[in-house]
Amino acid sequence: MKTKTATVTGASGQDAAFLSKFLLEKGYDVYCTYRRVSTPNFWRLQYLGIFDKIHLIPADMIDSASLIEAIRISQPDEIYHLAAMSHVGASFEQPLASGEINALGVTRILETIRQLCPDAKFYNAATSELFGKGNNKSQNENTPFKPASPYAASKLYGYWVTRTYRDGYNLFACNGILHNHESEIRGLEFVTRKISNAVAKISLGLDKELKLGNLEAKRDWGYAPEYVESMWLMLQQKEPDDFVIATNETHSVKEFCEKAFDEVGLDWQEYVKIDKQFYRPLDVEYLRGDYSKAKRKLGWEPKIKFDKLVKLMVKADLDRWERWQKGERFPWDAPNYPSEDKILSRYQKLDR
After folding, report:
1. Of 14, 12, 15, 49, which Cα lies nearest the Cα of 33?
2. Domain 5-182+220-245 shares a fold with domain 191-219+251-286+306-351
3. pLDDT confidence of residue 351
């Protein structure tokens, strides 16, 4: 039997790392695209022990020629499009880049598939941010979209162009509308990992406080390694379709803080400070998914819920900082991540 080949865009990200590991364990030949930068960022692939097991192809979502070359090299059976400018807050700072990468980037790769490998199956990473503001109940595949950030608006374009190519050109193209999914290798720019990392440092005496914005924002948080399995399951179906992936639970940023500090025996209120710069011009107050369709059609459901997720993340950051203090060196992002006090944003400028 021929070995299946998968192309995964966005090699440096959390989801690409977990998905690549999952596909390798399934026996796939895995090609990952990455954007060339002056300092390569493959620590997640190294951390998971798979860096030497995948093939790397340089490509950029704003460069159609590089995408064409990546597909020609990899000759994929399945394509998982995970590359994105993926931070909501950063999209307010760089709205044009969000559109170029997240919106037109999907069109570029779909057009490449249409011309070079129309039989390949395509997964597009959509997002629960599509639901935006005004949805105070659980969200499923029929819930109206109301994006509230440049990131969400660009992802909405990607969602609809994926459906357009599915219907117009008969491509096997799916949208995964994934609610927030976190892990031990989540980026430090995301609030969950920001909290778990800060808790670890504070408990070890390496830091004194944690600055956050809106503590009342509520999200449906799941575990990323489980969510990447849903991506694969979507491409194993007879017909392409779109699916919401979630835990059917909602928790606030404040709850995440409480639980995280509880893990190290500290009172969160003694260390958490509210800072205006971490508020967004628009914020989504409430997201809660309904994964009923995924359970029914894919046989997928989450196993790790909120409490265990927080525990896993805090333990991982605590273990790494303890190892680091002992002089051990390993692939990891936190020691080189700049303090947010050093990063000037438009919010600070506007407040002056």
Report:
1. 12
2. no
3. 46
Q: What is the bridge-based pairing of β-strands 55-58 and 29-34?
A: parallel
Domain ranges in the chain are: 5-182+220-245, 191-219+251-286+306-351
Q: Considering 127, 162, 192, 250, which one is annotated as catalytic?
A: 127
pLDDT at 106: 98
| Identified catalytic residue from 129, 184, 226, 263 | 129
Q: CA nearest 256: which of 320, 307, 210, 211?
A: 307
CATH class of 191-219+251-286+306-351: alpha beta
Give dist(CA 26, CA 232) in Å, integer.
10
Strands 172-178, 55-58: pairing is: unpaired
CA distances from 126 to 4, 100, 155, 201, 298 (A): 24, 15, 6, 33, 17
Q: Is 151 a catalytic residue?
A: yes
Token pair for 2: 């021929």
- Taking residues 242-257, what's their average pLDDT? 98
Give the number of other CB atoms < 10 A from CB of residue 50.
21
Catalytic residue check, 25: no
Mean predicted lDDT score pLDDT of the chain: 94
Q: Does domain 5-182+220-245 have CATH number 3.40.50.720?
A: yes
Do 304 and 176 form a contact (C-beta atoms < 8 A)?
no
Query: At residue 58, what are phi and psi to the nearest 5 degrees?
Result: -70, 130
DSSP alpha helix (H) spans, 84-220: 88-93, 95-98, 104-116, 150-169, 191-203
The catalytic position among 28, 34, 123, 151 is 151
**Alpha helices for 204-345 (secondary structure H):** 224-234, 253-263, 292-298, 306-325
**Burial tier of 37 (Cβ tally within 10 Å: 0-12, 13-18, 19+):** exposed
